[in-house]
Amino acid sequence: MSNVFDVVANKHSRERILDLAIAAIDEGGEVAIRVNDLAAAAGVTVPTLYRHFGSRDGLIVAAQTQRFRLTQNSDTSILSVALTRAKTAEQFQKTLRKELLLHFERDRWVLRATRLNTLGSAVKRPDLQASIAQAQREGAMGIAMALEPYQRKGWIRPDVDLLAVAYWYMGQILGRALIEMGDDPVVEKHWNQISIEAVMVAAFGPPAQR
């Protein structure tokens, strides 16, 4: 029985350390990761921290990847739940359009900024690149799986590669940051309209075919 408790305790301590590391990066960047301080705040010893993550770099990779993953999970879960309410092909298209627009809202800027920050941190860091790439694939697969039942129903074009659409759309979400910095050179409504119509054409064909 003690072995079970040990496993649970180790899991909880790892999660505490990871949560604290994410908070530290959010607050002050990777330089804010101080192993001794994090271990003390998590109520563990430094050797325990290293046992979970291998090294300070290993902790940073895990924390940056989790930051990235959490922002994706938010987008994927919201979309998946919304689509389940659609009972007809027409409702599905309307719901998809509405949900995609919500992902472009200004109040989701922090999610986009966090994702961009982690991608920038991965430059010339193969371990972090590989870890984020896996998290990215998980997010894309989540979107593709959410859409797949509707493709089987014939509500999405049968020739569309849903995984490719998911990756492309995730890129669109990140790309919106280009008009959210500086002096707003592009009208947000126009950018949204172009992006949404591109998704709708890719998934359902030109308007005449829908």
Mind summarizing the main beta sheet?
none
Taken in chain order, the helices and strands follow as: HHHHHHHHH
| Name of the CATH architecture of the largest domain | Orthogonal Bundle
From the alpha-carbon coordinates, what is the Rg to the nearest angstrom? 20 Å
Total number of helices: 9
Percentage of β-strand residues: under 5%
Output mean pLDDT.
Answer: 88
Number of strands: 0
How far apart are the termini?
A: 60 Å
Indicate the percent of residues in helices. Answer: over 70%
Q: Supply the number of structural domains.
A: 2
Low-confidence stretches are: 1-9
Name the CATH class of the largest domain: Mainly Alpha
What would you call the shape? Answer: elongated
Structural class based on helices, strands and sheet pairing? mainly alpha
CATH topology of the largest domain: Tetracycline Repressor, domain 2
Query: CATH homologous superfamily of the largest domain?
Result: Tetracycline Repressor, domain 2
